[in-house]
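Explain this record to help learners:
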Amino acid sequence: MIAGSMVALVTPMDAQGGLDWDALSKLVDFHLQEGTNAIVAVGTTGESPTLDFDSEHLEVIRRVVDQVAGRIPVIAGTGANSTREAVEWTQAAKDVGADACLLVTPYYNKPTQEGLYLHFRHIAEAVDIPQILYNVPGRTVCDMLPETVERLSKIDNIIGIKEATGDLQRAQDVLDRVSKDFLVYSGDDATAVELMLLGGKGNISVTANVAPRAMSDLCAAAMRGEAAIARAINDRLMPLHKALFLESNPIPVKWALHEMGLMGDGIRLPLTWLSPRCHEPLRQAMRQCGVLA
């Protein structure tokens, strides 16, 4: 079972926007050392919409898989708003050794619930690899409702969902509808503890990029039902959860990792480097959480 703290890994770049392979290797080592339970390579936090597929997107997945070498699962971001593209990308990720794929709902198209069901069913039937649905309507303007998740959960290789609405009533509805073997993950750092205490199996996390050990400890405590310990860690991390969304993700988290000396100062248009007015609030949150001296 893939569970626990799963980092939504950034894709490090140089100042010109080119991929920084040395920094990628450094980040993977950082997560292996700091207790991260799985790595999501080239999800939307990894700026997947702006990466060339063959030379960048697929190469990031291949390099992460090779470096991890089976020590923890590697989940590849392969979602697209073209069903045929999503099939192609999911097959390619399987071919380079990914353990599972994360598929965001089709953005911009605004499909019906039946369209969502048929989209994800088609990908699952086309590629025999464990697949995780990803619902984040705040970014995609496409909301996959709990009844659609319930239908999709009956497909053997659709193993779970990243529920990133931050709505705990929604999460409870999903949990009530699916079998106990279907994995419900948080995609919202601020509410992840509470979702796991409801029965969720982990957190696909932005904060884990910056504070992997704390997020790993938080997830482990929450999944053991140790609410007081998990909430105490979460209270300590809350300033960071909030500050990492001062501007659109992954703008703040890339700046934070640069501040920690883990990567350069690259990001790809249409995203821009963190605005100067946000530097000190984010720096202060990092100090409060102990990730920056």
About this structure: The chain has a mean pLDDT of 97. The first strand starts at residue 4 and ends at 8. The beta strands are 4-8, 38-41, 74-77, 100-104, 131-135, 158-163, 183-186, 202-205.
